[in-house]
């Protein structure tokens, strides 16, 4: 069985709605053979990252950057996983009111350094997530999970 690790920082109702939609997509009953593990960004360890075959990252965009929690997760895990996770697929969902470009750039740089492969288009939402935004989050979760089948 392959493992999909969802690393998230979910401090607001908008982020929570997006997280729940991503989880719902990743755990769709039609996706078989994929264990979905959820870890708060402040709790994730290098062992968690090494045990995963793919990743979904979720964060608010704070002041033009990823959340401090997601940055902390990468600070703690980056070098211990650097040579062991190359080529693994990942997806990203972000919620922000403005300045999401900086958060996207940060994730792009970090994941490029790790050698991860972008598995789906990012979902970036400003303001309250609409029905179509939540559907996009569901698709993101399902798409990345399905690639691990």
From TrEMBL:
<dbReference type="InterPro" id="IPR005025">
    <property type="entry name" value="FMN_Rdtase-like_dom"/>
</dbReference>
<dbReference type="InterPro" id="IPR029039">
    <property type="entry name" value="Flavoprotein-like_sf"/>
</dbReference>
<dbReference type="Pfam" id="PF03358">
    <property type="entry name" value="FMN_red"/>
</dbReference>
<protein>
    <recommendedName>
        <fullName>NADPH-dependent FMN reductase-like domain-containing protein</fullName>
    </recommendedName>
</protein>
<feature type="domain" description="NADPH-dependent FMN reductase-like">
    <location>
        <begin position="39"/>
        <end position="114"/>
    </location>
</feature>
<dbReference type="GO" id="GO:0016491">
    <property type="term" value="F:oxidoreductase activity"/>
</dbReference>
